[in-house]
């Protein structure tokens, strides 16, 4: 049975869409109008690009670290800015130390991520300009909801951010997660501990496994099941 798509027609302009960041009612990948379903729901792509894997996402930018990013890379920032950033991350963000173990491989690899998602663009853009990383808009599927703006840093950059914000965090659980992010990021070459576990000395592999288990227990304390 052939599926008949709804005919594309000009999208309903949401009041919260930004003119400079989101094309007004246009597809993410081209200049065609966004598709509208019979129930009035506005899709993020036009009829032609629906379901395509190569659709270009709206993107603000990326600041790749040149070489190894030192954990003291942001130590020269003003304390007032650091305190405000810590409040944004504690109130609207997420500090995620986690671990993964691939099947049939001797791999205990921790990874770290710090992210903030808000409907207000200015604070998220300020974090992006302060620490780098990635920032992108996240259009909502429900036309009654506001679109979000998402900022994220990971790896060594996340460790450098948490190293300067650790003393400004107030919640004990967030402090523990931030300290774990800094601890993981301080190990030289931790990201190379993948399938070939012989790349690192045995003591480094043992420490990585211990940190991965600690990251897993942190998830369990929050009520998040192990993967």
TrEMBL record:
<protein>
    <recommendedName>
        <fullName>Homing endonuclease LAGLIDADG domain-containing protein</fullName>
    </recommendedName>
</protein>
<dbReference type="InterPro" id="IPR027434">
    <property type="entry name" value="Homing_endonucl"/>
</dbReference>
């Amino acid at each position: 049975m052939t599926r008949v798509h709804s005919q594309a027609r000009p999208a309903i302009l949401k009041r919260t869409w930004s003119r400079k960041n989101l094309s007004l009612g246009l597809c993410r990948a081209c200049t065609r109008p966004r598709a509208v379903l019979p129930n009035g729901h506005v899709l993020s792509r036009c009829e032609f690009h629906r379901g395509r894997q190569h659709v270009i996402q709206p993107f603000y930018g990326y600041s790749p670290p040149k070489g190894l990013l030192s954990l003291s890379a942001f130590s020269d920032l003003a304390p007032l800015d650091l305190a405000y950033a810590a409040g944004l991350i504690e109130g609207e963000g997420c500090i995620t130390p986690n671990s993964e173990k691939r099947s049939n491989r001797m791999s205990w690899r921790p990874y770290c991520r710090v992210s903030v998602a808000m409907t207000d663009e200015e604070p998220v853009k300020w974090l992006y300009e302060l620490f780098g990383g990635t920032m992108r808009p996240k259009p909502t599927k429900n036309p009654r909801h506001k679109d979000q703006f998402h900022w994220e840093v990971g790896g060594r950059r996340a460790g450098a951010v948490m190293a300067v914000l650790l003393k400004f965090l107030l919640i004990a659980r967030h402090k523990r997660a931030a300290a774990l992010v800094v601890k993981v990021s301080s190990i030289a070459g931790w990201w190379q501990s993948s399938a070939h576990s012989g790349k690192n000395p045995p003591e480094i592999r043992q420490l990585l496994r211990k940190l991965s288990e600690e990251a897993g227990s942190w998830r369990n304390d929050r009520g998040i099941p192990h993967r």
